[in-house]
Design a protein that fits this description.
CATH class of one domain in chain A: Mainly Alpha
CATH superfamily of the largest domain in chain B: MetI-like
Helix content of chain B: over 70%
Distance between the termini of chain B: 14 Å
Strand content of chain A: under 5%
Shape of chain B: globular
Radius of gyration of chain A: 25 Å
Number of strands of chain B: 2
Distance between the termini of chain A: 12 Å
Structural class of chain A: mainly alpha
Oligomer: heterodimer
Largest interface: A-B, 117 and 109 residues
CATH topology of one domain in chain A: MetI-like fold
Number of helices of chain B: 17
CATH architecture of the largest domain in chain B: Orthogonal Bundle
Order of helices and strands of chain B: HHHHEHEHHHHHHHHHHHH
Number of helices of chain A: 16
Largest sheet of chain A: none
Order of helices and strands of chain A: HHHHHHHHHHHHHHHH
CATH superfamily of one domain in chain A: MetI-like
Shape of chain A: globular
CATH architecture of one domain in chain A: Orthogonal Bundle
Strand order of the largest sheet of chain B: 1-2
CATH topology of the largest domain in chain B: MetI-like fold
Radius of gyration of chain B: 26 Å
Number of domains of chain B: 2
Chain lengths: 314, 321
């Protein structure tokens, strides 16, 4: 590991030197293409933000455009009209993200610690037990029937939390980190000083695992934030709808109105007020994606590290 | 192997462990705290992952939700007959799953590598890092949100593309465009993220190698061909082999959300995962859906075992088990 670090440092020094000397034409051409690709990634996101603040007349006339004729706050205002539902959904999503990430990090690091202990013979069985779900699973339909028909958990937030809580890959990342980066001598020393296994783990090991916990935690939080599939399958009560399900419902409502010509006029009128307009829809999208986009740059280094660690077995 | 040891626990337990022998039971008792540590995750995996595995019996049943797994009638392999007979649906979704796997893997891997090398070679490091940050952002946008972005581009009445071209193509009912649309969305979504792994390999190359090549008169292009690319080969091999294990799985969000689950597009967009999700949300033909799921799981298992075996031969430290 140290070797790689040295290499990286050395490399960086040389890069700095090269950077001074070698701003050739080729580099500018390369930069141009990289910039093009960056725009390809960034512009669609920018479009969402622009449309969210575009007036409905401009969309009707010019369509969705990077250069709208007129701006307006109508979209954002009608998002506030969903008002209570949006606040509820935000609450549900935040609760699921926090509870799920905390529970997952705790249970997974405990499991990772257990299977990384030398001399613990059950560890081998536990490792295989952990790997099997990655190789084989019952499929979505079986999960659905078991969770709703046998556990009776329809409309329970547990079904938003537990399915993403413990994943084989994340446990492996944490185990790799414990094996490679936490000195066995230190843990041994704690035990000699009289700390029992629980103290050793919670007071010594867990605090030292911080970098890997940050990496895995961020990936988990993102997975929870973006999970729509479990919500679509298991949640239909308004009071428990997370944000992603709200987005899904908005799209379904539009489809419903566009595709059903035989909906009575009275019903249409009644629903008229709640048909999300284009700008309102995009404003909702903004409200849903903005928090992750704001948080991500702060976690980037952990996240990149976690991704790299995950690829190497300990 | 280890499972057999597990099976022998009660036998050992009934005999008193001899003093010096570290039987599994004695060992477990000695390390009881580790058992307690492992228990919560063990139980979550058990209830969420293992119990539903029992649901594969549905594939061999005339499953009725009212009767459940235990009461439903067994019909042997009937569901599988149905599976292979109803060519139109099963054949189509399997074909699409495979087609997209190959397109995404080929195009994705190629672009991951190109992007990683480009960012690695770029001397303006600060600008490079900033651009990389922007390139990774799309992976954090859920497909439930992405589909609105795609809609803004391809809507028939006021979509950006139709307005730009002055046309009114209704993309949501024309399957032929979707191989391209989904590939573009997939690239947009995951290439920036995918290249990170390759960049970490490139960061580990000793610059002395490049220096030596330069002294020997190799130009930039030759350096890339003879130093950079060969150093990526192990990682490329490993990533490709591991992806084979997921050959029957798809990014459900991409195929279910981005296409708005539009029936007119199924010819080009329905994959096994999106079929199963749609089936659950409407009224599933349980037998058929379960049989398709089992087929998917078994093929996935076989491919995963083969792939892992191959990785273990080539680069043991990257194998999963």
């Amino acid at each position: 590991m140290d070797n790689v670090k040295d290499l990286k440092k050395k490399r960086k020094r040389e890069e700095d030197n090269v950077e001074k000397g070698k701003k050739t034409l080729g580099q500018y051409i390369l930069g141009f293409f990289l910039l093009l690709y960056t725009l390809f990634c960034a512009l669609p996101v920018l479009l969402v933000f622009i449309v969210a603040f575009t007036s409905e007349e401009s969309i009707a006339k010019k369509g969705f455009s990077f250069f709208p004729e007129s701006l307006s706050m109508d979209g954002m205002h009608s998002v506030l009209k969903y008002g209570t539902q949006l606040v509820t959904s935000y609450g549900v999503t935040i609760f699921v993200v926090l509870a799920g990430t905390t529970l997952g990090l705790l249970t997974m690091s405990m499991y990772a610690y257990a299977i990384s202990r030398p001399g613990f013979r059950l560890a081998k069985f536990l490792s295989i037990y952990l790997l099997i779900p990655m190789l084989f699973n019952g499929g979505q339909l079986a999960g659905y029937i078991v969770f709703t028909g046998y556990y009776h958990l329809k409309n329970s937030l547990l079904l938003l939390i537990l399915p993403l809580c413990v994943t084989t890959m994340n446990v492996l990342i944490l185990r790799t980190y414990i094996v490679n980066s936490i000195s066995a001598e230190l843990l041994e020393a704690a035990k000699i000083d009289g700390a029992n296994e629980y103290l050793t783990f919670f007071r010594i090991c867990l605090p030292l695992m911080k970098p890997s916990l940050a990496a895995v935690g961020f990936m988990m939080a993102t997975a929870y934030w973006n999970d729509w599939q479990n919500a679509v399958l298991y949640i239909d009560k308004n009071s428990k709808k997370p944000l992603q399900l709200l987005l899904y419902n908005i799209q379904k409502n539009i489809d419903f109105l566009l595709n059903s010509n035989n909906v009575p006029q009275a019903v249409r009128d009644a629903m008229g007020g709640t048909i999300p307009k284009n700008s309102a829809t995009m404003a909702t999208v903004v409200v849903v994606i903005a928090p992750i986009m704001l948080a991500y740059p702060f976690f980037q280094k952990y996240f990149v590290k976690g991704l790299t660690v995950g690829s190497v077995k300990g | 192997m280890t499972k057999n040891k597990e099976g022998s626990v009660p036998a050992n337990g009934s005999v008193k462990p001899k003093k010096k022998k570290d039987t599994l039971l004695a060992n477990t008792r000695k390390h009881l705290p580790f058992v307690i540590f492992a228990l919560p995750a063990f139980l979550i995996l058990f209830f969420i992952m293992y119990v539903p595995m029992g649901g594969i019996v549905m594939a061999f049943q005339d499953f009725k939700p009212m009767k459940g797994f235990f009461e439903s009638e067994f019909v042997g392999l009937d569901n599988f007959k149905f599976l292979f007979a109803s060519k139109s649906t099963f054949f189509r979704m399997t074909r699409n799953t495979l087609i997209y796997y190959f397109i995404f893997t080929a195009v994705g891997t190629f672009l991951n590598i190109v992007l990683a090398i480009a960012l690695d070679q770029f001397v303006f490091k600060k600008a490079g890092r900033l651009m990389q940050t922007m390139m990774i952002v799309p992976i954090f946008i859920s497909f439930a949100a992405v589909q609105f972005i795609v809609y803004a581009f391809i809507a028939s009445d006021n979509g950006l593309i139709n307005k730009l071209l002055g046309t009114s193509i209704s993309f949501y009912s024309e399957p032929k465009y979707w191989y391209v649309i989904l590939t573009i969305v997939k690239i947009w979504n995951s290439v920036g993220y995918g290249s990170v792994l390759y960049m970490s390999v490139l960061a580990g190359i000793d610059t002395a190698l490049y220096e030596a090549a330069r002294i020997d008169g190799a130009n930039k292009w030759q350096q890339i061909v003879h130093i950079t690319i060969p150093s990526l080969v192990p990682m490329i091999t490993v990533m490709l082999l591991l992806s084979v294990g997921n050959i029957m799985r798809s990014d459900t969000g991409l195929f279910f959300q981005v296409t708005r689950d539009s029936g007119a597009l199924f010819d080009a967009t329905q994959v096994i995962d999106s079929y199963v999700l749609r089936a659950i949300l409407s009224t599933p033909e349980y037998g058929f859906t379960a049989a398709a799921s089992l087929f998917q799981s078994v093929v996935g298992l076989v491919m995963m075992l083969l792939a892992n075996g191959a990785v273990r031969k080539i680069s043991p430290e990257n194998s999963l088990f």
